[in-house]
Design goal:
The chain has about 1150 residues and is α/β, with parallel strands linked by helices. Helix content is about 45%, strand content about 15%. It is built from 41 helices and 33 strands. Helix 16 (about 450-460) packs across helix 17 (about 480-495), helix 23 (about 630-650) crosses helix 24 (about 650-660) and helix 38 packs across helix 40 (about 1110-1120). It is globular. It starts with a strand and ends with a helix. Residues about 775-780, about 965-975, about 990-1060 and about 1125-1135 have low confidence and may be disordered.
Amino acid sequence: MALAHGRLKVISRSKRNTVRALAYRTGCKVYDHRDGELKTTRKKMHEVQHVELLLPQDAPEWALELRNFIVTDRPKGVQKFSDIVEGHEKRKDAQVYREYEFALPREFTDKQCIKLANEFIQDQMCGQGMAVLANFHFDVDEETGERKPHCHALMLTRRLTDKGLALKKEVDWNRRNLGAELREQLVAYTNFHLKMHGFDERLDHRSYAERGIKLEPQPKRGTNIKAAEIREGNNPQNLFSSATTEKAIAFRETKLRNVCRIIRNPDIVLRDIVSKHHSTFMWGDVEKVLNRYIDDKDLYKQVEQKLKSSKELVLLKYESVKNKDDSIEDRSIYTTRMMLKAEVSLVQLAEKLSKTKCHEVSVHKVNAVIKQFDQKLSMHGGLSPDQKKALQHIAAPNQLSCIVGYAGAGKTTAVEAAKAIWELDGYKVYGLAPTGRAAQNLAQSGIPSQTLHKFLKSHEEGRCQYKARSILVLDEAGMVDTERFDEFLQAVDDLKVKAVIVGDGAQLQPVEAGPAFRLVTQKVGTSHLEKIVRQQETWQQEATKLFGTLKTTEALQKYHQNGYVQFIEEKEIPLAEFIETRNHTKIVETYNLSRRMVGNIYHLMIEDFKEANREEKNPYYHLQSHKDYALYREWRDMKMACATYMRENLEECRPLMKELGVDPYHFAEQFVDKDLSFKEQKLEAAHLAHLWKLPQLDPYQKKHICELRDQTKKALIQEWYLSFKEDPHKSHLIMTYSKTDTAMLNEEARHLLKQDGIISKEEYLHTIHKEDEDDFGDKIVTKEEKHFAQGDRILFLKNDNGLGVRNGTLGVILEIDRHKIKAKLDYTGDIISFAPKLYPYFDQGWAANIHKSQGVTVDRAFLLATYETYRNLAYVGMTRHREFVKVFGSKLDFRREEIFFKRLSSSQEKLSSLDYVRDYDSINFPNKNTKLQEILNRLGNELQAIRFVSKQAWQSIAERFLGKIPEQQEIRISQESISEHIRAKELLENHDTENDKLHKKEDEQGYTTRSTPIPNSSRAFKDEARSTGVRPSTEKEEFKKPLSSHKMVQEPQALTSDNLTALERIRSLINDHKLAHTEAERRQIEVTLNQYAKELYKQDPTLKSIRDKDKEMTKQIRAILFEENRSKQIDKNYER
């Protein structure tokens, strides 16, 4: 997780020429009437990919015309904009603009970046009445070739009026906390779009200090600052080179302070940065962090070596891979001592609380409430046996209880009944949840609720009002990370209250490190709600259980076998006919479609190769052997044929490229020389785009417009329409992944129903609000205008106790006009009325986004499956129905059935360090350093920091006065890092096999393991992995040894005649020696290594068979044989 970059500043005449500042941001030449000069900058027009004037909702007519003028003719439009703004400022030190510059995700396409920024600016700036000129710079780093998309949002300081700008400036827009507000909202919008587009990354608006990271965020040093430093004769790459500009000085000082912090205490790299969001990591993750802060190669190696020998570093699993060049790549898994200790503490505290007796409730009161709810729910069969068992479980006198339930198993009903039980005995019940939305849902059960973060903060500050007779219900506990969960249990222990945690292991994972819910339920035990009350068919209930136990593929197969999954063939593309008839429109559409297909097939082939062969460094060279390669070539050839035709007919195709959103730079990349470097290819593509005058994309136009699933959507709508006509009294719902598909299917459904008279033809246009929350509880509000009519389905998007609706409630509009809507709710049959201006949180309800469908229950559901759908979405989308759900997928998305099962089963599981350790009860943490050792370590680190500063200062002096340019040092990240969710998939799926092999190996080696019964795990983890089998402890004296699952050193056996086998063994032992963490382990490896080398020497005294194949290894073997005494002396000196 990264910090979001957003900076608010004032652009005034006192510090710079404001017209030149506007020219740089827009890429245009702008005339300054004050000094009569034409202002130009090094930023050319083609380098500013998009400029757009965003206006408040009540903008006057002249402002709308100016906005359109900027779109059609940017230079003239920007000039007119500058004249208007500058003309209203009279003071020579006037504050002309207020600028908010913010970074955009480099993972996004240009179109996605523009859409994100527009939504953010429109809601958060224009919503306050500001007019904003948004300038998008999609720069490419000249050194690394990485994209650096960002936006310069120039906010006017005056409101718009019918006659121009207001006479007085808006004082409220200059408030001090505006920057913090915009930063927090920017993170919320960005995280929402990252989640919507299927990216795992998340931003955090909190500072390093607020997140507990003892480093300073480095100030931004842009290309203009670097250029200014170079003009002054300074070297921006040198940390100690002279700096002239204020920003360069701030950047240098902050970076120097961070480097010194890392030198003084290297463990902050492990503790505060690498393990902040992942409990386990690989060495490549550590190298990335070091590379971010340290430029000096020698210092980099020294700090890396300190980290490898740090007591904070814990080896969980040893694994090394030999590359083709005989180099050894470390793929071991690590954690930190602090993280492991926190997870062990969490589990032990949970076990202690579960055994503590308190908050006893009489049995007859429990039975009375169960009987009462049985009567209340008699129409639905009363409480299920699972719900009754759950009530008995959480009403038991234990300080900590857990409930785990599938979707549709009645968790909410069970909590409502439990609340009634506790209140009969005089207890007060309160709710907690990780997000505001979950807290609102819990409040619908009549439980006063707040977010977990707010509760923990009030407890930390001593303001918590909960007493010993309070009961806390933590809902959606699966989204809580280890640190927060541990703080929650500590608070429960301090306050002596009872805690009930409710969740589902198959739901969303926590943002920060650790699957705490799984660890707690695995140790404490839970009450499972396994009886599905929503679906009636037996095989559907079984499928829901399979979804809940993460056996998504098996669940999907059940629906496929029963005929509820259809793959629709799209129309064949007659490209030859298009070219012959010169159908330019269809050719450009085909180019967009083929571009998307080429990308999807290519990435899937790479993914398949990486899964099949983890050791292969370059799977790209093996694409031709993949079964989809022929299809990939077919689509690639089609894309190239379309691109060639478009280049030959640019005059005719240029307006169509603009209309259909063809990315000009990607189009030009088809014709660059592929032998060039990545950076050179990017520069040549930009040159060609400028040379051919390829049109820049309109801000309101989507990129790469093409219809990928036309026939699939038609089949879905037709099936839905037939079902609706057959039984209109049944509730129906269409679900999709993207908002675009949702809006289109809603309109298609309404069109069909208006023809039949089911929906009135008299429509009313209403402005609706959509409110979402990111992982930190930040609200995101977007506004849209949509038509509604009598008979329309309506979907409520926000809980409202006064109306009696929840987020996801569905209903039918009975009456509607411009000021009021009357609707009948599906679930209760209640008729409600509301004013859309007071409650604007609703939408058309025929089709809905899968995210918005959570909590909805309907009779019949229809799901449009796409390439972007993953396991959590499939779980939600295919468990909303009572009678059936029909799934439709395009064969362009799922050309083979196994791709459908693979894509919809993809997981984002998080790992815990305890997943690699079975018997963590017997873990003995190593003793901390003594005070003397701490002082000596600190002194050594301080001396190293002084040495580093002195060395860099001397290099700066030599560069400045002697003309000696320091040699550029390139630090390469040598170790590959595999994402945690990929490792989780491998670990959980192969646990049984690995354990069997591991136990067999330990038996052969003579190591004893203590057989420990596996504690009850959460049903999600237990059923997916089939066991909690992780490595047991083999030693109690030292900690790192039992956690290490690498090969234990064995007594050397007699070598075979094949010396290559011995050579491989010696290589492995040498690498083990490098990675050994304890002196005893290092010496044991040295003894074994020496014996292997002597045995090899006896068989081949000249070492000729090895010398011819590996001269470097021969030198190492000779050193082992003949320089043993010298090595011992070196070790003694090192220890001293």
